[in-house]
Amino acid sequence: MTAPAAIEVRQLAKRFGATTVLAPLDLTVPRGAIFALIGHNGAGKSMLMKLLLNIVQPSEGHANVLGMPTSQLRGEAFTRIGYVSESQEMPEWMTVGALMAHLRPMYPRWDDAGLLEELDLPAERKIRELSRGMRMKAALASVLAFGPELLLMDEPFSGLDPAVRTELIQALLDRTHTEDPARATTIVISSHDLDEMESFATHVGFLQRGTLLFAQPIDALLTRCREVTVTFEGDVAASVRAKLPEGCVAAESSGAMLRFVDLRVHVEDHEGAIRALMPDAVQVQSEPMSLRTIFLALNKAPRAEERGRA
Ligand SMILES: Nc1ncnc2c1ncn2[C@@H]1O[C@H](COP(=O)(O)OP(=O)(O)OP(=O)(O)O)[C@@H](O)[C@H]1O
């Protein structure tokens, strides 16, 4: 029997009074995925994680994690699910070594052999004496050691220098990922560093003001989004721009030049497809995009993207 998806969400929503913080959303995160949850400040990323952890209860809909309904998550379930957040509360008075010793008996699969050395963490130092980067290392060590099947990380690297970020990501990948996706830890990670996310995530979900605009493998997203520049003979770019099909967003025109982002790419010869759409074009250029440039384009034309999916 195949294992259930790591996360299965159906019509999950959260409201506070008349304020909708998360509109009903569906989401499936396969086992072994590294799922980057992206979106502006206040988009609902932390709220979605809290709903998945049963820290907050939904207004409607339901979610399963590791095959368990979130409403039933308690006690033993949390020996299989790890959570690391930017504002992680830690027992400040303990040393790093004492924290590890305190947690060890609670987890059947605990294995911290070599972990503190790997992360360059001094076992004898009190947590309150640690720098921001070291605190985050200690927080990460305390979840990596119990071998979680699912790890939710809410902006774990914010404010850390690039060297520490790289070290943490390496430790994370070394400890959680194997050739076999069925045995790998599923990671959901929210971050504002999109270049970093693109470098190691396998999937991406984009939350915009409480609405999940899409969730899909990063490769598929990068394939379907291209930045297009079209040059015409005369001063016609603005009129062509006005007739762009849905799914072409973030359009700008000036004189004979039109630039836009096409979110609907499904053919190999994309330039040919644009030429067919715009027979008066003199020159057509279709360039691949990064996760960061796609994010910026979607923010210029959020509703167009939603229509583009319909
Ligand atoms: N208890 C609450 N009552 C009312 N509104 C809330 C509550 N908790 C969170 N919110 C609102 O929910 C929205 C989403 O917040 P959330 O913390 O999930 O955003 P985020 O995407 O994680 O943002 P950031 O990137 O800044 O961390 C925000 O507008 C926030 O004000």
Features:
binds adenosine-5'-triphosphate, 310 residues, disordered C terminus, ATP hydrolysis activity, 2 domains, Alpha-Beta Plaits, ATP-binding, single chain, ABC_transporter-like_ATP-bd, 6-stranded mixed beta sheet, 29% strand, Rossmann fold
Could you explain how this protein is built, in words?
With 310 residues, this protein is an alpha/beta fold. It folds into two domains: 7-221, 3-Layer(aba) Sandwich (Rossmann fold), CATH 3.40.50; 225-309, Alpha-Beta Plaits (2-Layer Sandwich). The protein contains eleven helices and 14 strands. The protein has a six-stranded mixed β-sheet, sandwiched between helices. The protein has a four-stranded antiparallel β-sheet with strand order 2-1-4-5, covered by helices on one side. The model is unreliable at 304-310 (pLDDT under 50). It binds adenosine-5'-triphosphate (ATP). Adenosine-5'-triphosphate binds at residues 16, 21, 39, 41-47.
